[in-house]
Structures
1.
Amino acid sequence: MAVAGSSYQRLPVLLKTGGRVWQAWSAMGRAQISTAPASFSRQNAVGPMQIQKSGMATAGPQNLPKLPVPALAQTVSKFLRLAKPITSAGELDETARIAEEFLASEGAELQALLEQRAQKLPNWLTPWWLNAAYLEARTPLPIVTSPGVLFPKFDYFGTAEQTDFAAKVISAALQYLDNMINCRIPLDKAGNVPFDMSQYAFLYGTTRIPQEGKDRLRYGFQEKSLARHIVIARHGHFFNVPVFDEKGAPLSCSQIVEQINKFVLPQSESVNPHQIGIVSSDNRDDWARVYQRLKRNSGNEQSLEAIETALFVVCLDKPTTHGPDRTDGDEQARQSLHGGGSESNSGNRWFDKTLQFVIGHNGYSGLCYEHTPAEGPPVANIMDFICDQFTANSFTTKNAEAPFASVKKLEFSLGDEDKEAIRKASEKMDAAAGDVELKAYTFKPFGKNFPKSQKLSPDSFIQLAFQLAYYRMHHKHPPTYETATLRKFNEGRTDTIRLPNPESAAFVEAVVAGVENDKRLAELLRNAIEAHKQYSMEAMNGQAIDRHLLGLKMTALEKGLKLPKLFTGAAYKKMQHFTVSTSQVPTRNFLRMCFGPSASDCYGICYNPQEKELHMVVSAFFSCPETSAVKFVQMLEMSLLEMEVILTRGGARSKL
Ligand code: COA
């Protein structure tokens, strides 16, 4: 089925001239991000997104509230409460003393300075967060920072069908872009509360540029005009592939297939012996030095330019195999997260690119995305949309009629130092890919329906299961990170929903001790779930502790003040070591997301609770003898089933 002509009618204008619609879309992104270049004049902007009654996001101001600064005493009191289950009695006493001192001394000054910043900026947190969480981090992007997303298995096999499938993914991704440009993306909400939509504008055409000390984002919306090409990678070769004609009409699927067959496949039959893309998986400073050297050659510079401005990258991967220790889903997670190592497909990637579709040879496909510009949900919405187009078989079938640029192979002229950098980066990638254990898992006995039937929050129920599984396995409470969205605020990104808390600790200890009856356990479980839900709501309302404490710390650092003892004490340090990092990314289709653990002895869990099943990928590192993703999944399954029994047998909450 052809894409409705009307949806593309405005593209020719905007593509040719960088016209009004594109500018509006660009402007909404620019106007919303505090890190926009100084040269940008807000007066020129059409303005950020506007919400219409239809529930669609359109260009125009969204007028969302500003992120508040929580009260200092409230944060300190929550900090002490959350420190309790993971500190010894002595550490807790010492922390309480330090906290009291902090409130009576430096705390008030830092709080006042932070409140001043909050008055001045559209969002006091987001620019700091982008730097602290992403741009200043020197660690490699794949595995820990950049998540992988897994499409459902599609029915295709071999190069010809892989090409056909890739063309459909490209076509659907371009339809989504068109929806974005024409403001047809449904507004994201929590209940009736609208979310900041600006992250959508940051996804296409965006690349993270490596720089020593601190990277920068090169946003697609800041380019003079929208790119008309994507980049296709195959066997470690890169190609600039046009996807719009000169008048701005999108190429049909068969035209894209023709381009791939005619130009990409014949020029990429043999594996590139020098796969420069793999260096983008290296430590950011190392990659930055190689990148700078590459740029000094004008041919390389043109190739880099084509990759950086491309709307997205599509990786046509070579066949993969796996032994009995992995399922197809586990292998799919590996390919999406890191490409399986240099002998597999890690060299067929450009990890700096925000959107990188990974198209396997055997029906398995997904996406690897660079996390800096956006959280999972906008990306997952693109993936959901693409799945919907496959269900509806709705792709562009009308051929573009105007001429379009020809496919161009992107050449890189590499010296010995660059080849050495490729060798070193390959070695590091192989070690990292070999170390990360990924278990793709679906829990089938129930989904959100069971906790809902018990009048409990499904998310909190699942989080309690993570706590119980971990405690069973490791006999201690794990400092746990769960992403809370702050998108109800202008330019909002995330805060942290923390566990354990005293209620969750009481529940898991009671279950493992095995002395309480089901009625008492059900009571403890309900208390724990409600305490978690309460904190989740506080977090979404900007009242969690993690980003507030970060803000106070950043204030001290920026003003050259002495770092308060609160930030150097045992409790704070323990609380920053997230033994379990989790994120919920819900979707309509069967999509799973994955990311690596935050440190060597930790777990990463990305989960997608659907009505009747819970999908997730659990990660750990093989090099840590204590952790195991496979065992964790077993413990989790046991915990979920046991919690079902506890609630069913233990009955509803009795009136206290
Ligand atoms: N009784 C019955 N039903 C309940 C309930 C209760 N006590 N509490 C919640 N529910 C229902 C909700 O109405 C909702 O219904 P729906 O399935 O029809 O939508 C469903 O259960 C899910 O609610 P809940 O499990 O409580 O979670 P949530 O959807 O509100 O999500 C967070 C909570 C914290 C995960 C979410 O707000 C958030 O911040 N997500 C972050 C996403 C993100 O940015 N991820 C980053 C990835 S990089």
2.
Amino acid sequence: MKKKIVSVLTVAMLSMSMLAGCSSAGNNAKDAVNTTENEAVADVAKETAKQAADAGNGSLIDKKVGVCIYQFSDNFMTLFRNELLSYFVAQGFSADNITIVDAANDQETQTKQIEEFIANGVDVLIINPVNSSSADAITDLAVGANIPLVYINREPDADEEQRWEDNDWNVCYVGCDARQSGTYQGEIIVDLGLDTVDLNGDRKVQYIMIEGDPENIDAQYRTDFSIKALEDAGIKVDCLEDEVGNWDQATAQQIVANALESHPETEVVFCNNDAMALGALKSIQAAGRTVGSDIYLVGVDALSEALEDVIAGTMTGTVFNDHFSQAHSAADAAINYLTGGKNDRYIGCDYIKVTADNAQEILDAVK
Ligand code: BGC
């Protein structure tokens, strides 16, 4: 799979550069994914694990990893944690030693889970914080117990990251720069041309914005940079509604249903992620509107369902949020710490713009 993704990414990067000119603790991993999936992962990974052991990673089999996910029901984080587990096993870890827990979007629950992991003597922590603003307290817990820590997906603020560096702590962050994803969303609309998108002919783009969790930097950047891309291209915009959908499909569906009723003049619906775009699409269709002819819709993540919609023309575009690369980098960073190495405090990855032109290619790679 990794090979397949790398080659798709290479092709995508190449084509992008060609276009650039225009353009509850204690549950183990078996609770994270179902047993059948776990067994399949273990089988597939057996040979790779043996090779890893032969290559000198044999000691990893006994290492215990504690993984905290902000919410299991999040579609994107589900892809991320499943890939994290299978990659760890492929690197020579035992699936039984990778414990993945669900904070159910509650920081207090997550803090207890972290304390429990520490009490149980995990060797490394991977944390997708419920609230990025709780990172200082989380870091203090891990550092106090001398356990290396890899944050994923929700980036702590600059002061917190500076603290890691100033103190030379074994703490780092793995994620993508959400400014890029917002910019790509905006460019997808810009590339259609104002004449196409401006359905009422007022030389402006009327839009609705559906935001993820506003505390999350991904949501803030995607909201700002998608619109900035339009403005940078000289397109005037008119924000009809900007609402918080909390990354959630059903919430976004409701918001968009109401917004379309109040604002039939809506030309573009920007959603900070695909789950919300899929909800938006239901309301767009229920309102008798047709994506690609009298409204445009963009998301982020490149969930399979969204890619199928892009291929069918029922979504204008999305942006691939590479959970393979992020999961692998997070596990590699953890392995580095476990084997006495260091990590940069920020480990990034690139997003990929997805339209009908490359959606099939991305779908083949993620499936
Ligand atoms: C993803 C969202 C997800 C969120 C969770 C974002 O990077 O695009 O789909 O809900 O992370 O923090």
